[in-house]
Amino acid sequence: DTAVSQTPKYLVTQMGNDKSIKCEQNLGHDTMYWYKQDSKKFLKIMFSYNNKELIINETVPNRFSPKSPDKAHLNLHINSLELGDSAVYFCASSQGGGTGGEQYFGPGTRLTVT
Amino acid sequence: GESVGLHLPTLSVQEGDNSIINCAYSNSASDYFIWYKQESGKGPQFIIDIRSNMDKRQGQRVTVLLNKTVKHLSLQIAATQPGDSAVYFCAENTGRRALTFGSGTRLQVQP
C-alpha cells in the first residue's frame, strides 16, 4: 500500500550510459515531481507534471527527460550519464492547486555514476 | 537549543528537552510553508504546514511559528525523543506548484 514508490532504490552505472528511474503514486494525485538531492542534502526541484502535462522544467541538462504516461506515473530518463549526476533522486506527488499543497515523497533512488 | 538552517548545521539536544529549528525563507510572496523530516535512507516526510495568513500552528508535540516581517519560520519540538533524530527541512511554495527547500538542519537527540 505504498503511496509513492520508486524503482530502483539503488542504481550504479558507468559514465556515458543511459538509465531510467520509475515512479508511481497510488494517491490519486494530479501533480508529480522529480527532485534531486545532492551530497550536502540540498533538495532541488527538477520537473513537475500536472495531469501528464509538463508545468515546471528547471535548469536541468536536456540529457534528463521526464515522461508521464498517465497521471499516476512519472519516469525519469537520463542519457549520457556524468559523474555529477550522482545524487539521490526523489519523486513526489500532490493534489494540485496553485499553492502546491503537501507533497508526498517516495523513498528515493540513489544513483552512483562511476 | 536553537539552530539556523544553513549548510546543514547540527543541533544536538538531550532527550526530553525542547528543540527549536529555525529557517529563513527567501520569497516574500510565498504563501505556504511546510516542515519536512528526513530520516536516513528515506524520503522527506510531512510534519506540519502553515499558510501565510497564520503566525502559529500546533500539531502533536510540534509547533510552527511564522514571522512574515523578517521572513522567518521555526519548528518547535516538545519533549524531543530519540526517534526525532533526522534532518529537518523547511520548504516554501511561491505558487509555482513546486516547493523551494531550505538547506536543512540535522537534529541529534542524545539519550
Keywords:
heterodimer; A: 114 residues; mainly beta; 7-stranded mixed β-sheet; 4-stranded antiparallel β-sheet; 0% helix; globular; B: 111 residues; 6-stranded mixed β-sheet; 5-stranded mixed β-sheet; disordered N terminus
Average pLDDT level of chain A: 91
In angstroms, what is the radius of gyration of chain A? 13 Å
SS-based structural class of chain A? mainly beta
Contiguous uncertain segments of 5+ residues of chain A: none
The number of helical elements of chain B comes to 0
Report how far the terminal alpha carbons of chain A are from each other: 34 Å
Let me know the number of strands of chain B.
11
Question: How much of the polypeptide of chain A forms β-strand, as a percent range?
Answer: over 45%
Query: Helix count of chain A, per DSSP?
Result: 0
- Largest sheet, strands/sense/barrel of chain A: 7 strands, mixed
Provide the helix percentage of chain A.
under 10%
SSE order of chain B: EEEEEEEEEEE
Strand content of chain B: over 45%
Give me the strand/helix succession of chain A.
EEEEEEEEEEE
Supply the helix-strand structural class of chain B.
mainly beta
